[in-house]
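Many introductory courses stop at the sequence. We go one step further.
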Amino acid sequence: MDRIAVISDIHGNLPALEAVLEDINSRHVAKIYCLGDLIGKGPSSDLAVDVVQRTCDKVIKGNWDDFVSKTSEFEAVHWHQAKLGPERMTYLSQLPFGIEWYMSGRLIRLFHASPRSEYERIQPWDSEERRLSLFESSEHFEQAGLSDVAGYGDVHNAYVQNIAGRTLFNTGSVGNPLEIPQASYAILEGCLDSKELASFSIQLVRVPYDIELAIQQAVDDGMPDLEAYVRELRTGQYRGKKG
């Protein structure tokens, strides 16, 4: 059986990324796919990009990776752009949209937020119709029709759901989880590049990491939006949530 680790939403949090990569290595998982948002909200976007380039077999573009490479009016974006430098920003701008392949007879399709856009946000509690749309294809993919397995990042909520005979999963976030304050990633296990039906599994993995070190790095770097970032790391509560 083959195993692939799927990580996403690192958001410049180096201690979380290092803890996840150590956990993946300890499990002897040979391949790593990254579903984007390597950069921002945390302070180490530059280092996160460098580590992902070295360690991941495939990397796709997230919404942060997309808009940070463009002109912006926001101070926080300017701060991350300065940290990244032109070469890394070019790398991020050229990342592909998605990944698809067969594993244990199942067509698997991975993307950052939806098969249509890096910006279309679909939560695990959204309507069944919206969640079913995540199995659809688009001009970004070679294979037409519905996938058997769809996986994404973006919402920072790790879950697995079976919907109408198909499997939907979210990796959660490595560097900015918004339910449990521990880094999250997924492991897919099956027969790689095989169209013959065989056993297949998805495992969600939680990895504790040094949250206070991640916060101290942000403090030391004078990162903007620090208070909201600290709250999210310590509590797993989204900064935009009311109450």
